[in-house]
Write a structure and sequence with these properties.
Number of helices: 5
Strand content: 15-25%
Radius of gyration: 24 Å
Helix content: 40-55%
Structural class: alpha+beta
Shape: elongated
Number of strands: 3
Largest sheet: 3 strands, antiparallel
Distance between the termini: 72 Å
Length: about 150
């Protein structure tokens, strides 16, 4: 096609690229979502709850997201376990509890500095693990109390 035609047809290049990508298909490295091509059999998340176990709105109460709560907990747990030459995967229940208590104290202090209504009663740090169940298409969920302060 002459150059003048490409200039007159503003979507001609786009059309050519779309046709080329459709012809290639969903193959690596041209997949749209490579990070979602496979899933781990297990995933976990953390949240902060009141004394009764009801989840608290972390962003509103403590000024951080639950995603950050997970990162903060894992960083503190990793530092504690590193003191004895281990990592977070081999951390003891006592190290997990201590890391959680330290994190909860920091979250309370941060919430108080922000002027948020931090609960007076103890709050809990909870971990939930979701994994594929033995039955096809099913999921299993386990929850544990890591710390309370």
């Amino acid at each position: 096609m002459p150059t003048a035609v490409w200039k007159r047809l503003p979507f001609a290049r786009l059309t050519a690229v779309v046709v080329l990508l459709l012809a290639m298909g969903e193959e690596f490295p041209f997949t749209r979502l490579p990070m979602y091509s496979t899933f781990d059999p297990r995933a976990d998340y953390y949240y902060v709850a009141d004394a009764a176990g009801t989840p608290l709105a972390c962003e509103k109460v403590f000024g951080t997201s639950t995603a950050n709560v997970k990162k903060m907990f894992r960083a503190r747990l990793g530092a504690l376990a590193a003191l004895r030459g281990a990592d977070e995967k081999t951390a003891t229940p006592a190290e997990r509890r201590l890391a959680g208590e330290v994190l909860l104290a920091e979250l309370r202090a941060t919430g108080a500095r922000r002027g948020a209504a931090v609960p007076a009663e103890p709050v809990q740090l909870r971990r939930v693990e979701v994994r594929r169940a033995e039955t096809a298409g099913g999921f299993a969920r386990t929850e544990e109390l890591l710390a309370q302060k």
